[in-house]
Amino acid sequence: MFLVNFVVEIQKTMVKTPKNIAVIGATGSIGTQTLEIISSHPELYRATVIAAGRRVDDLIALARKHRPALAVIADVNKYSVLLDALEPLGIETAAGEQALCDAVCRDDVDMVVTATVGYSGLAPTIAAIKAGKDIALANKETLVVAGQYITELLAKSKSRVFPVDSEHSAIYQCLDGEDRANVKKLIITASGGPFRKWTAEQMANAKASDALKHPNWSMGAKITIDSATMMNKAFEIIEAKWLFGFDGDQIEAVVHPQSIVHSMVEFTDGAIKAQLGLPDMKLPIAYALGEGKRLPGAEKPLRISDYAALTFERPDIEKFPCLTLAQEAMRRGGNSACVINAANEIAVAAFLDGKIGFNDIYSTIIRTLDAMPYIETPGYADFVATNNEARMFATSII
Ligand code: NAD
Ligand code: MG
Predict the structure, then answer these.
(1) Element (H, E) at 288
(2) Is 138 near ligand 1, meaning CB less than 6 Å away?
(3) How far apart are CA 389 and CA 384, in angstroms?
(4) The predicted structure's pLDDT at residue 17
(5) Is there a contact between 256 and 191 (Cβ–Cβ < 8 Å)?
(6) pLDDT value for 394
(7) Which of 93, 108, 117, 164 is most deeply buried (CB count within 10 A of its CB)?
(8) Which sign, positive or negative, has the C-alpha torsion 29, 34, 39, 41?
């Protein structure tokens, strides 16, 4: 018996290969940082699939560098460019949403990093879960849109979810080794964004270029605007509810302008645990890829003595009403958060195009939320329909 175990152990060591990763949203902020970690650790990871939305030239450049087995572009109109560039290199190519869903289910994929932006993350994440693949979840919108549905799918699947969002990675690290019955509260930190010190009047006239100047984090355009409205924090409260299974009223946001404390957990004995680090996504990405194992040197060390003060304040919901949409969505339940997400995507795009003002983002969302039919227990087809209808309605009022 002993010998058999020993032989099995040796075989396990011998066949150990790098973990195969599919990076969807590979050309974005999270995607490129993920690929940097993967390429720095070829003994641990290999990018077998990379996928992007429309930026085919960036995808081709990444494919040349990282040599995946397959590169997928969601925009079918860009397919011939991708094929012409990658066929001579022996890299498989595909295009379209279904191709993206098929790609994450391949045998040469162990883990899927969901780094696409917005609603586009939902279908491939569902496909990956159904195929039993592990998920490193950056695309928080998936859990915002369909948290209950995804939770039920996960219960029937062998796939596990590892959070990439820095706040959720921090909470995951703080919960490690703890009895969840002792958890009183999850405290999610927020930088407060570029308008923390602006007056309401200034904010009404804010331009996209102002909102895109995030004080601490360098991220894609959509999440940067979500940070300026604090919609991002509302989404993160919903994301935390589904990831960690606590009630909405056990999760609160606190403004922490230095973005050093990435989030905290308060326990019933009064203790509060926090995870600290520089505002750098490399650590949470590496922690998710490693399934909660630490990767030495993942991010530059934080010199805590460089910070004379770490400060915390209550968020101003008068100035940032989008933050209240988390509790509103959780109170209403059903397809409400799907409506909020869709209206927000349309409103953010319109704000970036200069078509609406900063404060119109909130009013577009709330008007859409009140106009859309309520579905108590939405299935996948209901999410598709709700997303389409809410987008059309939000576009019509813009
Ligand atoms: P980004 O805009 O920089 O990149 C988005 C990526 O998604 C690009 O590769 C783009 O090609 C791809 N994409 C867009 N539409 C697509 C579609 N229809 N099908 C397939 N791919 C599509 O965004 P980001 O900042 O990297 O954010 C990605 C996700 O991670 C978001 O959900 C965001 O909320 C979350 N997140 C980001 C950060 C960060 O630091 N950037 C931190 C926490 C969470
Ligand atoms: Mg975050």
Answers:
(1) helix 282-289
(2) yes
(3) 9
(4) 84
(5) yes
(6) 98
(7) 164
(8) positive
Cα 282 to the center of its chain, rounded Å: 14
Domain assignment of residue 204, yes or no: yes
- Classify residue 214: in a domain, yes or no: yes
pLDDT attached to residue 16 = 61
Mean pLDDT, to the nearest integer, of 120-127? 98
Q: Domain range for residue 353?
A: 333-398
3-class secondary structure, 240: helix
Measured between its terminal Cα atoms, the distance across the chain in Å is 71
Q: What is the pLDDT of residues 258-296, one digit of tens each?
A: 999 999 999 999 999 999 999 999 999 999 999 999 999
Is the shortest distance between the CB of 120 and ligand 1 below 6 Å?
yes
The structure tokens 């909102």 sit at 211
Task: Select from 13, 18, 15 the least CA-distant residue to 45.
Answer: 18
Query: Which of 219, 282, 285 should be mutated for ligand 1, with most atoms under 8 A from CB?
Result: 219
Assigned domain for 326 exists? no
Strand-pairing partners, residue 263, are 275
Residues 100 and 188 in one domain: no
Report if residue 324 sits inside a domain: no
In this structure, what token pair is assigned to residue 188?
């999610």
| 211 shares a domain with 258 | yes
